[in-house]
Structures are given as structure tokens and as C-alpha cells.
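Reopening this one. Same input as before:
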Amino acid sequence: MESSFKPKLDSNYSYYVLSVLLVVYIFNFLDRQIIAILANDIREDLGISLSDLGFLYGTAFAIFYSIVGIPLAKLADTWHRNYLISGGVAIWSLMTAASGLMRSFVGLAICRIGVGIGESSASPAAYSLLSDYFSTNVKTTVYSIYSSGIYIGGGIGIFLGGWIADSWNNIYPIAEQAPFQLAGWQIAFISVGLPGLLIALLVLTIKEPIRGHSEGIKIEKEERPFFEAGKVLSGILPISSLVSLVYKKEKSPEIYYQIFMTFGVISLFTIMSYLTGDLLQWGAFGLGLFTLLSWIQTVKLNDPIAFSLGFKSKTIIFSMIGFPLISFMGYAVSAFLPAYFIETFEVTKTIAGRNLGLQSAIFGFFGLLTGGLFSDYLRKKYLNGRIYVGIFAVVTSPISIILALQSKDLFTFYVFHIIWSYVSTLWVGLCVATVTDMVLPRMRAMISAFWILMASVVGLSLGPYSIGKLADYFISLDYSSANSISYSIQIWCSVFIISLIALILAAKYLPEEENSKVERARLLGEQI
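Same output, byte for byte:
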């Protein structure tokens, strides 16, 4: 049954909804980030490389997160968003707990895939829900508060993960003598995964609001939401997408594009696998890239108005280049900095998790909050106010992380790590607010999914792996693991240059495109 609940915008209940969704996002990143503090133990027990760890942290999770996220974004635009988020929380919590039972690289990779599938349900539905509970005046701040779950959850994850693993290993220094022969890193996965089932129940207390009411735009009810989501999935997967085009008797250029795209992705997979020897990495990345391109084609064929507003917007395109490249480095640093810190300063996982975790959680939260508040303030004076804050983050982030990695003592490292934690989070909330403001309400979950896809395919699947792969090269030259990670991160900071150029170009086109979006939609046939 379609909801008839019309909440008062910016009310106390609105902030209750925001609080619940923030808790969801905290658990989302707690379960996702915990692997970083456990990296050295996992690497030793399973006998894997740094690039393998990058695959587990990023690619195995990100690609299936992206693929399943596309039909779930469609479902978020047409079905009960509270039910969707609750089911996803239950799935990823169970798969996180199951990670603790794995004793092989392949088994852990499968669980990480499961975590990615579960977590793909959350953000598109959450962003859509929040847009119906809050007014435009506070949207960036609200999105920033929600997005702070990234850093609060990540900080708590590495703190709890390190403390649980160290505590277990101190009690049972020989894993064979521990209950069920479980090592500390396995117990950590189990301990943080199972409580998520209670959060899944908490989400069901959120009331589903009338979609689009916050802007007075009526959204037509979708009679078969799961069928439509299934159509979206079949239209983006290899082979089924081509079959779907032929069955629908689409025009030849669309079929040729699909064939050309397939061979292009296969060629990329073949070349990169040959050059690196990493079949799993490039097979998964190729699948994710194919899905992204195929999905864009599907949107073009099924919803040409949404395609025109979303994928022909220069502002959105440049934003989707600039911001994901920041996440490329953000995810990479999150994946490997704990391991670097533990080896460089010879501290325990508990100390590393506590100090790095608290710094990331506290200053990451304030960075997101400041970024949101300052963006909303500048937005009142300049349409490009959000982009200006993003540009500031792009300029200051590489300086702070490079200085942190070159620090010779703990105090100096902490100072620059705190600065990194703050400035590298300023942009997160404003990115989503920027791109969702460029489209109509019925397209918000779709464009949020596009952002998640780009952040996943470009940022999460390539960032940790690339840093790990270059670090493996330095290790082959007899550098220590810590120095190898440090050199790799510093070299890859060069991607911030591309990000800066892209955001400057986004700022150039944003004012005109945002002011004309409704008129352009009407000209394309949208009934507004």
C-alpha cells in the first residue's frame, strides 16, 4: 500500500529519522572498515599480499555493492525505503559475522561480496528518505550529518577491531588452543557483525513518507516495483543486457554499442590481467565497469528525461570525476594507514585502533559537519558555494597526508593525521547535495546510485588495490612494508590534480544548469 504519511519538514521526528539512519551508516562503515586494523593478521594467517588486501578491502566489496545497488536504487525510488534498508542491514551484518568463520582468501572474499550486496541497499534509500523529511535550506547539513557515519563507523571499527583482536590473542596466544581454533581477527568480525541485526529492527520504526512531498511534486505510484527493479538488473549484466536489447528490438546503434562495450571491457581485463597477474581484481573491475556503462545505456532507453538531466549535465559529469578521485585516496589511506602506523611506530593494534580511530571519528565528523554548514552558508551567497568547499578539500588533503607520512615522531604524525581527518571529509555531504539538486525528486535515488557507482568503481575498487599494488613493487625491492605503503600513498596523491581540474570545470557550468533544470525537464516532456 502506498504511504499517506506527510511529515512536517525539519521536525523532531525528522531528526529521529536522521539519527536512526546515522546509526545505520555507522554500522555500515564499522563492518566495512574493520578489515583495515586486522590487515596484518589476515595477511600473515592467509599468506596474501598487500594488493590482495586491497582487493578484499575494496574491489570484492565495491563491485558487487555497485551492481546490486543499481536495481536497489530503482527499488528505493518505487518501494518502501524503510523495509529495503532494514533487509540490507540484516544481510551485511550476517555476512560480516560469517567473515569470522572463514579460513581462506576465497572464503573471505565471498563474505566481503556479501557485505557489499547488503550495504548497497542503504544510501540511495536513505538519501531519498531524508529529502522527504527535510527542507532544501538544511539539506547539505543533513546529508553531512548522515555521511559522518563514514568516519564515526570507520573510527569505531578500527578501534573495536584492534581491541577485540588484541584481547583475544592475549588470552589465547596460540589459535589452535582457542575455542573453535578462532584467531583474534576472526572473533573481531563476529563481534561487530551480530549486533547489526538489532539495528535492522530499529529501522522498521521509521515511517515511510509520501515521496516528493517536500517540494510539492506528486510522484506516480509504481505498481510492480520488484519487476521493474528486476528489469533494471537484467539490463546491466553481461549477456542478459544484450539479449534484452535484441528482445526489445532496440535500434541497431544501441546493440552495436553494447557489443563494442563488451569487447572493450574484455580487452581491458585481458591486458591488465596480463600486466599485473591479478585475474580476480581485473575480472571484478571489468564487471563493475560494464555494469556502470550498461546501466547508463538502460537509463537512456527507459527514462530519456532522467538520462538527459543526469548524464548530459556537465556539472554532474565533472563532479563525478572530481569527487570519486578524492574517495580513491580516502579509501586507500583508510585501508593501509593502520598497518603503516603499527609498523612504523611499533604500537599494538589496540593503541593504533584507539588513537587513529578516535581521531578519524571525531575530526572526520567535525569535518563533515563543518563542510555541510559552511556549504549551506556559502550556498546562500553563491550557487557554487558547495563546489568551493570541495576545492578547498582537494587542495589541503594531499598536503596533510604527505606531511603525516613524513613525520618522524608520534606527535607530529597525530597533528597531520588530525588535519587529514578533518579536511579530507569536508566534501562528502556537499557532493551528494550538489548532484541531487541538479535533477528532479523522482530521480534522486537514481543519481545517488550514480555517485555510489562512481565512488565504488573509481574510488573503492581501484584506490586500495592501486596503493597495495605499488607497495608490493616497493616490497619486491626490499623496502619495508611501512615504507612501501608510505611511498605508494604519496605517489598516488597526484590524482588530486585531476580532481581539482574537474571541480573547477563543474563550478563553471553549475549555475546555468541548476537554474534551467525544471525548464529543460518540461521541454523534454516531463509533467511538472
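So the earlier flakiness isn't reproducible anymore. For the record, The mean pLDDT is 89.
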